[in-house]
């Protein structure tokens, strides 16, 4: 394997790499919008074509929704198999007026490429595609088999992929999934994310009288559903942020002393963090730092409240109903199904009089924990250090990528989350961006990763 | 005074009475809608014309909004003065599709007249106008002076009348205000309402981060404004319906043993009441009956809740803000201004960390208590018994008519609330109605009332 030859090819191709990313970004593949159905299909075709031209066995696999793009390089006996997962669909670009340059007109300003999908996820997944395609173009054999699974419904919940995954388990069999759909810890501080929180979301509805009542004629004699909702929601979490559902903390994987020490050594300022989000003071569970609260502790949040009169002025009614959207972030080892039972039991126990309460679970996913000291993680660490000039920090993230724990379950594989983005990339907002330098460093790190992983023997 | 001659005139005029009410109801005098400005003016002209034609000194008094119609019969030395208050404006008729017959096409079905304003308040106030006009038409002198104050902004808060009232105090000077803008206790159970609750309304807003945050990346590390709102609202009232603001019950006028006994003798079924409003069980302050809770106890209600994601599906955010519309019904002797101070102190004491709380008072009005055994009330009772064939019951109502306590304060007068409506008249909803028989009985009771009040000597 002549790695310097490969790295040299990458260096001399950087203009084409950027040009190709721009081509892909120009396709408005908004998966949630049926008006963009053919654009989504075009984005799938674009990437399938790219993979196929490089010589990979490639298929566009239809689903009930948008298709999966699956490709693979030849098998390499004795070496591990890597599966690159990413997505070619993007979030809606609205509000369009807030974009400085067009959402689907990729534009470079101050070293950043601005476009919807630049960081989430076209730019990031393309780093791995470029590294593999260019490697193959040199004529050098890859030191391991690499498979690609690029889906078109990540932004709308990956339901079709989740359903099809068990049936694809042979075809996608791998030792390690590689995903670049997250962020570095900070500018020039690349990270390996070895944990994600799970999630459980619900809608809680409280119905009282059959219609809004006059609060003068009826007030005092009937339970107000909005008051019942506030009491019920307040019973779920105390004023110190501690969740009161029986058994909620029983399965929580406690933070190890080692990772608490490691995280405490990460550059972090509570003051700067509070300023960034626009609050005077932070708030969270006692006895934990901000990063511990975000990455390693379970939460309860109210995502929305709706009841009664919401317009201007006064309408003195007892609302017929009140509802809340609520969600929990779970840490590894907490089971969303178990939570649903415990939450229902909590509600039954705290049921107010004279109203009907309905809890509707929406979706749930377990958290993910990988071993940050695994040989795959260590290989990734070396690759990233080579490309970025600094070793990656080991972090967890507070968000959830439900498909990741499904990969672990179904494919029984390890998982590497290698984020090339930055926390201010605004992946779901106007003016989404991706740092051009990080795109190129990501491609280089990816190539180094194949070399590092290829040097490992399978199953050792 | 030849009362039988007058009653006879009323009897023979019933067709015209109904016809005139229909004329008035056809004018869509929706005070809140600027598109109906000239209709509102026409409704004022219609009633002014009616009063003037009967020989009364009548004026249409402009205000910054819709005009007041003021009229009076000649002074009668030694006799008390009665002031009839009512309003010619109506609520919007929307949703129009829900009306069986047109909102401004008065239609009789099953003995009821259906139209916007039928009961609230054109039909009810017209009973007093008809009785006085017909009395004057007989040539008999009225045994007391009667003044009319018919406004066009009751449905939008009576602000101009409130402002002008002190300057009109000489002109409107009276011993007793007569208002028919409420309901009988039940069908064929006329009532004298001797108490109303006051009101205080507020908007409560809690602001957290400067924009909605991703609940994965930030959840657990920042106060969720919607949770803070639920905690704060829950702190205002306990799960038994007891309000927790310090001193809230200090000024509450307790119910007398006599009125509790009287109310307990009123026909009432909790079961039927619950069924009517569509709940399985009633709820309220311990130790009080349903009517006591509605009429004689102060309350706290949430009228609306707004925060975060309210559309379909899931959006896992920490909302930037959460707000509530809240209101209190006050009993006589509670001061809305004092409540505002106590509520602000309560909020300051229960202030959550990391969010900003703003309390904005909207409007406040004291409750009203009249003496149900006053000579005016007893005169009204005799008049109603003559017209309805059954003596009225003595009740309070849970709603608030802010102008009533202003009349008491500014004019230093007694107050008679004589409701001819029924609780299912739907005054602010589609298919508003007024029982035709009650319209005619109301006119008769009104005439008898003038005879009864006229027999009292002023100030005795």
From TrEMBL, chains A, B:
Give the Peptidase M20 dimerisation domain ranges. 194-353
Which SUPFAM superfamilies does this UniProt record tie to the protein?
A: Zn-dependent exopeptidases
Tell me one Pfam family matched here: M20_dimer
Looking up CDD domains in the UniProt record yields:
M20_dipept_like
Q: What's the superkingdom here?
A: Bacteria
A GO BP entry? proteolysis
Q: What is its EC number?
A: 3.5.1.18
Which InterPro entries would you find in this protein's record?
A: Cyt/Met_Dipeptidase, Peptidase_M20, Peptidase_M20_dimer
GO MF annotation list: metal ion binding; peptidase activity; succinyl-diaminopimelate desuccinylase activity
- Keyword tags: Hydrolase, Metal-binding, Protease
The entry's protein name is Succinyl-diaminopimelate desuccinylase
Q: What is the lineage of its organism?
A: Bacteria, Pseudomonadati, Planctomycetota, Planctomycetia, Pirellulales
């Amino acid at each position: 394997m002549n790695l310097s030859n490969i790295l040299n090819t990458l260096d001399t191709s950087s203009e084409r790499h950027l040009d190709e990313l721009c081509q892909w970004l120009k396709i408005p593949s908004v998966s949630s919008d049926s008006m963009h159905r053919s654009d989504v299909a075009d984005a799938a075709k674009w990437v399938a074509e790219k993979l196929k031209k490089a010589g990979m066995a490639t298929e566009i696999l239809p689903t009930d929704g948008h298709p999966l793009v699956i490709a693979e390089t030849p098998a390499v006996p004795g070496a591990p198999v890597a599966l690159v997962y990413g997505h070619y669909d993007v979030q809606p670009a609205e509000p369009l007026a807030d974009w400085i340059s067009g959402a689907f007109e990729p534009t470079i300003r101050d070293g950043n490429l601005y476009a919807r999908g630049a960081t989430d996820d076209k730019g990031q997944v393309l780093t791995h595609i470029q590294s593999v395609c260019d490697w193959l173009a040199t004529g050098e054999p890859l030191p391991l088999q690499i498979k690609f699974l690029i889906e078109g419904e990540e932004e709308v919940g990956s339901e079709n992929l989740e359903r099809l995954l068990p049936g694809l388990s042979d075809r996608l069999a791998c030792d390690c999934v590689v995903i670049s759909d997250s962020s570095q810890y900070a500018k020039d501080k690349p990270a390996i994310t070895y944990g994600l929180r799970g999630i459980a979301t619900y809608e809680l509805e409280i119905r009282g009288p059959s219609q809004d009542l006059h609060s003068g004629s009826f007030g005092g004699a009937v339970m107000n559903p909005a008051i019942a909702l506030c009491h019920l929601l307040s019973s779920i979490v105390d004023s110190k942020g501690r969740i009161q559902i029986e058994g909620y903390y029983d399965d929580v994987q406690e933070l190890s002393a080692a990772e608490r020490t490691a995280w405490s050594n990460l550059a972090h300022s509570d003051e700067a963090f509070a300023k960034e989000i626009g609050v005077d003071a932070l708030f969270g569970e006692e006895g934990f730092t901000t990063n511990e609260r975000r990455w390693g502790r379970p939460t309860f949040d109210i995502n929305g409240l709706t009841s009664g009169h919401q317009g201007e002025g006064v309408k003195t009614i007892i609302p017929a109903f009140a509802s809340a959207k609520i969600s929990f972030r779970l840490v590894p080892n907490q089971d969303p199904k178990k939570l649903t039972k415990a939450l229902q039991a909590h509600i039954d126990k705290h049921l107010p009089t004279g109203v009907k309460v309905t809890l509707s679970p929406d979706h749930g996913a377990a958290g993910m924990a990988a071993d940050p000291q695994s040989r795959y993680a260590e290989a990734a660490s070396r690759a990233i250090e080579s490309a970025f000039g600094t070793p990656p920090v080991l972090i967890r993230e507070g968000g959830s990528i439900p498909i990741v724990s499904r990969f672990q379950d179904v494919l029984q594989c390890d998982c590497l989350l290698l984020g090339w983005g930055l926390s201010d990339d605004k992946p779901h907002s106007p003016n989404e961006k991706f740092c051009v330098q990080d795109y190129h460093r990501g491609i280089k790190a990816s190539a180094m990763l194949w070399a590092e992983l290829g040097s490992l023997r399978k199953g050792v």
